[in-house]
Amino acid sequence: MKKIIFAAIALATFAIAPTVQAQTKMVGGAAMHPTKNIIENAVNSKDHTTLVAAVKAAGLVETLSSAGPFTVFAPTNEAFNKLPAGTVDNLIKPENKTTLTKILTYHVIAGKLSAADLWAKVKAGMGKAELSTMSGGKLTVMAQGKKLYLVDEKGGKSWITIADVNQSNGLIHVVNTVLMPR
């Protein structure tokens, strides 16, 4: 009987492991584990060190570690490097915390929206869909070919370069440009 129970446990473990492994994606040279929250994963991505520093400066670590769920459009370091020289250094100063917080929460949507969900919204919206951000702003999701991109309130565009990075408290979509609210 013990052998049968052991075999059943081993078979169940084997059946579950590939599913979890398939959900784990690599971002910035690090595995993003679906059992960890947004912050626990982001701190391991070498492509998101600027974003993590900005989240810390804005005091959003606790928020993005909470239950959520959240959908985060996570700009890479390269995305931040596209901003005019000195912008990031200026934004992380304590006196600019309100502006930094507004920009960062503009990249966050309440709820968990997968790429399939975004595609469905675009199709239902006749080619585009509007999302409400945690900062109170609006983002427009559109498709071009097989790519989804976001248009911010100032007309700037950002591509989703890595979609559906599962987190315990939501989902991350890696983007290649910082989105700017009005």
Automatic annotation (TrEMBL):
This protein's UniProt keywords: Signal
UniProt-listed SUPFAM superfamilies: FAS1 domain
Pfam families named in the record: Fasciclin
Entry-linked InterPro entries: Adhesion/Biosynth-related, FAS1_dom_sf, FAS1_domain
One cellular component term from this protein's GO annotations in UniProt: extracellular space
Ranges of residues in domain FAS1: 35-179
N-terminal signal peptide: 1-22
Membrane-spanning parts: none
Phosphoprotein recorded as keyword: no
SMART domains per the UniProt record, alphabetical: FAS1
Protein known as: Fasciclin domain-containing protein
Species the sequence originates in: Mucilaginibacter ginsenosidivorax
